[in-house]
Amino acid sequence: MAVREQIRVCLADDLDAPSALAAVDAFAASAHRSAGDAAGRQGLADVVDALLGVRL
Predict the structure, then answer these.
(1) pLDDT in tens, 7-55
(2) 28: exposed, middle or buried (Cβ count in 10 Å: 0-12, 13-18, 19+)
(3) Which of 13, 19, 41, 45 is the most exposed place for a label (fewest CB within 10 A)?
(4) From CA 30, how far away is CA 53, in angstroms rounded?
(5) Which of the 8 DSSP states describes residue 37?
């Protein structure tokens, strides 16, 4: 499951913000280990801002 979908599922589950943040943290750790996709990282930043109110 994509990290964006994981965040949505966690928040839909009684606003489980700790699990949503854990999904973001896991994504960040894996992106840090690899070059990754800059557009994907920006897309995730947009999702985190929109759903969690955290500007990255």
Answers:
(1) 999 999 999 999 999 999 988 888 777 766 677 778 888 888 998 888 8
(2) middle
(3) 13
(4) 22
(5) -
